[in-house]
């Protein structure tokens, strides 16, 4: 298997991988939190039904899966030096999209809550 050295988002991926370990852990947690918020929004109609437990379980599973993948992609394991790769770039791109969706959901909720109802 050959490693690709030239791919879109390579510079961004390289910059993220050069950040301190604690910062990368926080970034992975933030991406996982954004994924949970988006999944929760998808399952919002089931909050007060008998399916609430299963929708919460799905949200937790998605959050743990995204965080675990983020740990592998951004932090790595003991003694492992992470190198930029297309899969890490894709993870970062999809996570930034999730963050933007989360921000839109939050701002939309604030707007609807505080707009005067006329």
Low-confidence stretches: none
Share of β-strand residues: under 5%
* Class derived from helix and strand content: mainly alpha
Fraction of residues in helix? over 70%
Largest sheet: none
For the CA atoms, what is the radius of gyration?
A: 17 Å
| Assembly type | single chain
Distance between the termini: 62 Å
Shape: globular
**What do the pLDDT scores average to?**
85
Number of E strands: 0
Put simply, the count of helices is: 4
Series of secondary-structure elements, N-terminal to C-terminal: HHHH
Q: Can you tell me the number of structural domains?
A: 1
Compose a concise summary of this entry:
Helix content is 70%, strand content 0%. It is an all-alpha fold.
Features:
single chain, 118 residues, mainly alpha
Task: Describe this protein's structure.
With 118 residues, the protein is mainly alpha-helical. α2 (21-42) runs antiparallel to α3 and α2 (21-42) packs across α4 (86-114). 70% of the residues lie in helices and 0% in strands. The chain contains four helices and no strands. The chain starts with 9 loop residues before the first helix and ends with a helix. It has one domain.
């Amino acid at each position: 298997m050959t490693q690709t050295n030239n791919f879109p988002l390579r510079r961004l991926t390289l910059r993220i991988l050069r950040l301190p370990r604690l910062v990368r852990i926080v970034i992975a947690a933030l991406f996982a939190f954004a994924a949970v918020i988006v999944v929760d929004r998808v399952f919002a109609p089931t909050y007060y039904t008998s399916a609430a437990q299963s929708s919460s379980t799905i949200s937790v599973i998605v959050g743990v899966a995204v965080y675990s993948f983020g740990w592998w992609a951004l932090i790595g394991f003991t003694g492992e030096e992470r190198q930029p790769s297309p899969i890490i770039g894709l993870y970062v791109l999809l996570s930034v999209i999730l963050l933007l969706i989360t921000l839109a959901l939050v701002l939309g909720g604030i707007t609807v809550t505080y707009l005067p109802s006329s």
